[in-house]
Structure formats: C-alpha cells, structure tokens
C-alpha cells in the first residue's frame, strides 16, 4: 500500500525549520533488492540529508532583536523592507530600490501566501529569510518577465512596523514628580520636550535638538490625535513613553520626508509647563507675618527679594544673586501684571509664592534668552518692607516713665540709646557699640528727620519702637550700609534731657529779666562791663535757675559769644548804649521789615 511520509530536519542555526515530504512505495521485503531498499530507507531516516524539493516555506530568523514589543499576527498591518531573490541569489525585486517599504495586511492576500505565512511571529527590527516554494509564490504562471513559472523564491525581510486597527495609544509612565497639584486637561496649553522615533528606532524629530519646547493646546486639533490623548493627565515634570498607531498619527499620508505613510510613532515626552488661557494668578502664603498692622495697597513702594523659576523648578533669576532687593511701586504698571497684582495685600516679612500664567507674565514672546514664550513663571517672594509716599513716623511706646516733669522738644539737648534695623530684623547700628549714649540737639538737622521727630515729647527713661519711612530716613539712595528706600526700625530709650533755648539764642531768662539789666551787670558801677563781670553775672543767673545757656556747648565759649554780640565796637567793654536784649533786637528788626 502507498503511504505519504512527512518528517522534519532541524538545523543547528536557531530558528531554522525545514519541512520535507516524500512519497515512497512501502512493501514487505521479499527479494534481495527489496531487503537492500529497506536497509537503505532505514539508513536514510537516521542521517541528516536533503530529501529533495520543499513543499512548505523555510524561515531563517538570522537576526532577532533583544526586545520584542509585539509579534505579527494575522490581521495586523505590517510595513517592511525586503530583497527578493531566486535561490541562486539573483535579485528580481527590492523595496529598497523603489525607496518605499511594502505595506499590507497579513492574512488578507495583500502578499503572496508564503510571505504571508512566513512573517507571522516576526518582531520589529527582526531580519528573516523566507524561502517560498512555487505553489506558495507565483505558481506555474510566474510573474511577468521577472519570475519564471514554478520558481522557488527567497525573501530577505526586515520588519519596520506593525499595528492593528484595534490598537490604542500605548502609554508607559517613566517617572512622576513627587507632587502634582494639577494635570493636563483639554483646552490646556502645554510646553513639552520630546524625542520622536519610528517603531524601528529611526529618529524623525527632537525638540531638544532645536533647543525649544513643543508648545500647543491639548484637545483642540493642534496635535495628532494620539498625542492629544496621551498628554491628558500628565503632570509637570512627568515623563511618558507613547506608542501611537498610524491612524492616530499621520496616517496613510505620513509627514514630510521623515515620517513615511502608515508609520507608528514613538514619543518620549517630558512635560515642562502647563496652563489654561483662563487661568488667573495663584497665590500661596508660605509664611505669614504676625502681627500684620498694615497690608500693601496700590501706590505703595515695596522692597522684596525673590527667586524666579519655571514650573519644572529651574531657576532663571534671583534677587539674592544680584545681592539687592527689587524695589518698585505696586499697582502702577512698573512690573509684569501678575506680580503687580500678587504683591497687593502682603504684609511686611511675609513669604508668598505667586504662580503667573503667561498672559500675566511675558506672554507668547517671552523675555530675552532666559524666558521662553508662553512660559508659566513661579516667584517665591520675601517682602522686606513697603511704605506709602504719605506715610508718617509710627511710634509705639513700649515703656513709660513713672515720673515725668518735662518732655523733649526742639532745641533740647538729649542723650539716648538706640538700635537701628531693617524691618526683616537685620541690625544696622546700635549705640551699645559705644561707651556713651548718642547725643543730639533736637531740631538741629544732625539726624534723619524721622528719628528727630520720634525723639520729641519723650520723658527720660521712656522707651519707644519707631518705624521711619525712607522719605523721612535715608531716601532712595540710602547711606552706607542702609539700602536705598529702606524702611527703618528704631528701638529708642531717652537717657538724659537738657532743655534748650530757641534757635538763634545763646541764653534765655527763665524768670523776668532784671529791670535795670546794665546796672546789675556793672558791679563796680564804672559805666562799663568787662568780660569778667559779664561772665560772673550770667553764671550766677544759671546757678540760681533764673536763666539757661544754650546746651551741648562749653558754657565759657557760649558766654564769650554772648559778650561779643554786645560789644558792638569790639573794644572789650560793654556800655549801656551797646547793651540790648535779643528779644528787643528781634522786635526792632521786625519793625524795620514791616516799614
């Protein structure tokens, strides 16, 4: 009886699989010849040999990639390059020569049956040689003048792409930020960096090479559908890996010369920025200031330190690096709109974070080389101080004097201790660094106006905390280590007080002056008063509490000046005609001015 025998031979090369068939007439061996044939057949089955023409495909997987995303299945669409040769190696067709890879659907007769079968299980970037017998190729008819009838063909393939109509965007989250307060939603504007490749790893674009992010609105058709879908839910700083099938990418048309038709796309994306055109500024108080006696308003002049960064945390500017606060008016258009708004309602010493959408920062144009267009900005701000142009000296009495018979006023000579600091607590000066207290004649234009004012109406032993705005301090330019436009804080203690005399006076009477002043001065009644008599008389008035010399000066020097004022002919003597009280002189001057 006849039997059809089928057996296989496995080569030592991994993945090669040959199927052979042979028809043999098998009978019981009766003759020597038949016995010989039986022995020969047994020997044939026990050795490695070529049985003859193949009846099925032979697949040689001569390069298998380490990573295989997916294997080709029936119904998948594939894109591959190939060289088609005869068994003698002669080339009859090549996709490389045409400059376009083959594209078709597996199992739908888009390609010859042998290749359709041989490509199953193939991975992207895998190389295979598929040997196809005639009946699984072009059969007895051949193919035009290129492939003769009954020809075995060899196809050398490299798989470039595979996808299925049922595919969706494949998303793999590579890394996520520790904190995510907001994720991408439809209509959001995003800025992201990406590397884009085809499924075989061929790069087609990279935002890094352009040194510029890809900027787009999500869900409004600005991007391919796969990116529109894949970006949803991403956080700033998150990295995702996308595989996008062609029908959610550039489809059958491809894009330019880099992305062929029917190409799956692979994106490696880092989300840098996120906002919505309807966003307002976001203010987060990082550290409140207690107590807060006053909050900033439009028109105030403010000094603050800041660190400025993008949403991804990269710093682009800092006042600390400049070693100088940023000083400006609030709400008057001197700053970008978001900061102008975010600085209103702050307290001195407060720390706050202000997040600015681009339309309240530098917009689509950006600023210089450091701030790209459409960038969300983050300002971490420390308010040093602020003031209004009409602010006055603020006085807070921290300790009152139990016994207070007189208070300080203009022209008084006082001694006081002080600590001078900025509102952030930075100590600038202190009288404790010196052996004696600070002294001054109030109203003498020897100290800043705000401090001069703050020291008035004080009792000895009284303590005050005083806030002096810069226009009553050291102004816009500052002085030494005092920054320009700095609000100053003084802690004051009045140590001593000597009452003064009015401006222009060297001596004043505390009681009525003598009716006959010259006679009182002229002790020896010789109708002339030398310096000695004059000095003796004035010192007596002071000691008896009837008069007061100008303080903070040597009494003898003051008396000499008084004497010179009366010795009008400079002969060293005062006569009755020369002697005039200053009050009378001032009255006489006033009469002359009126005339």
Describe the structure.
The structure is a single chain. This protein has 595 residues and is α+β, with helices and mostly antiparallel strands. It has five domains: 58-163, Chitinase A, domain 3 (Roll), CATH 3.10.50.40; 170-275, Roll (Chitinase A, domain 3); 282-387, Roll (Chitinase A, domain 3); 394-498, Chitinase A, domain 3 (Roll), CATH 3.10.50; 507-594, Orthogonal Bundle (Recoverin, domain 1). Helix 10 packs across helix 11 (555-566). It starts with a strand and ends with a helix. It catalyses: [protein]-peptidylproline (omega=180) = [protein]-peptidylproline (omega=0). This is peptidylprolyl isomerase. GO terms for molecular function: calcium ion binding; peptidyl-prolyl cis-trans isomerase activity.
């Amino acid at each position: 009886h006849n039997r059809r025998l089928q057996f296989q031979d496995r080569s030592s090369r991994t993945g090669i699989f040959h199927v052979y068939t042979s028809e043999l007439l098998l009978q019981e061996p009766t003759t020597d010849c038949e016995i010989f044939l039986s022995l020969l057949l047994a020997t044939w089955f026990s050795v490695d040999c070529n049985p003859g023409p193949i009846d099925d495909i032979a697949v040689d997987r001569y390069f298998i990639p380490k990573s295989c995303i997916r294997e080709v299945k029936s119904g998948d669409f594939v894109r591959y390059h190939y060289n088609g040769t005869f068994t003698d190696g002669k080339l009859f067709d090549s996709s490389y020569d045409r400059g376009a890879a083959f594209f078709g659907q597996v199992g739908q007769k888009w390609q010859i049956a042998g290749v359709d079968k041989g490509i199953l299980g193939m991975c992207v970037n895998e190389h295979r040689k598929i040997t196809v017998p005639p009946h699984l190729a072009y059969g007895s008819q051949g193919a035009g003048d290129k492939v003769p009838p009954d020809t075995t063909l060899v196809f050398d393939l490299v798989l470039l792409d595979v996808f299925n109509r049922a595919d969706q965007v494949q998303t793999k989250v590579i890394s996520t930020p520790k904190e995510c307060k907001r994720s991408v939603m439809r209509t959001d504007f995003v800025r992201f960096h990406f590397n884009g490749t085809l499924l075989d790893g061929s790069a087609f674009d990279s935002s890094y090479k352009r040194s510029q992010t890809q900027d787009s609105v999500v869900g409004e058709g600005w991007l391919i559908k796969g990116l529109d879908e894949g970006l949803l839910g991403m956080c700033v700083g998150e990295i995702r890996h996308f595989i996008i099938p062609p029908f959610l990418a550039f489809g059958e048309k491809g894009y330019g010369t880099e992305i062929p038709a029917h190409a799956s796309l692979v994106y490696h994306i880092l989300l840098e920025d996120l906002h919505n055109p309807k966003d307002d500024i976001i203010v987060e108080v990082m550290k409140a200031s207690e107590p807060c006696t006053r909050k900033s308003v439009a028109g105030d002049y403010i000094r603050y330190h800041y660190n400025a960064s993008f949403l991804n945390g990269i710093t682009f500017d800092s006042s600390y690096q400049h070693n100088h606060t940023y000083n400006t008016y609030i709400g008057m258009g001197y700053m970008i709109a978001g900061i102008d708004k975010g600085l209103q309602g702050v307290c001195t010493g407060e720390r706050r974070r202000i997040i600015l959408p681009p339309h309240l920062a530098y917009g689509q144009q950006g600023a210089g080389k450091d701030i790209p267009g459409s960038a969300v900005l983050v300002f971490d701000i420390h308010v040093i101080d602020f003031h209004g142009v009409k602010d006055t000296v603020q006085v807070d009495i921290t300790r009152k004097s139990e016994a207070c018979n007189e208070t300080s006023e203009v022209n008084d000579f006082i001694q006081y201790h002080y600590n001078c600091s900025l509102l952030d607590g930075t100590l600038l000066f202190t009288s404790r660094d010196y052996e004696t207290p600070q002294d001054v004649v109030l109203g003498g234009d020897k100290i800043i106006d705000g401090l001069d004012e703050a020291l008035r109406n004080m009792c000895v032993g009284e303590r005050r905390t005083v806030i002096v705005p810069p226009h009553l301090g050291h102004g816009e330019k500052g002085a030494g280590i005092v920054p320009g436009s700095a609000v100053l804080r003084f802690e004051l203690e009045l140590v001593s007080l000597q009452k003064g005399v009015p401006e222009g006076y060297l001596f004043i009477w505390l009681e009525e002056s003598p009716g006959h002043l010259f006679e009182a001065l002229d002790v020896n009644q010789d109708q002339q008063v030398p310096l000695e008599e004059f000095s003796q008389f004035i010192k007596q008035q002071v000691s008896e509490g009837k008069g007061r010399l100008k303080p903070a000066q040597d009494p003898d020097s003051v008396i000499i000046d008084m004497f010179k004022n009366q010795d009008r002919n400079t002969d060293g003597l005062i006569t009755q005609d020369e002697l005039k009280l200053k009050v009378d002189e001032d009255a006489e001057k006033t009469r002359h001015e009126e005339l």
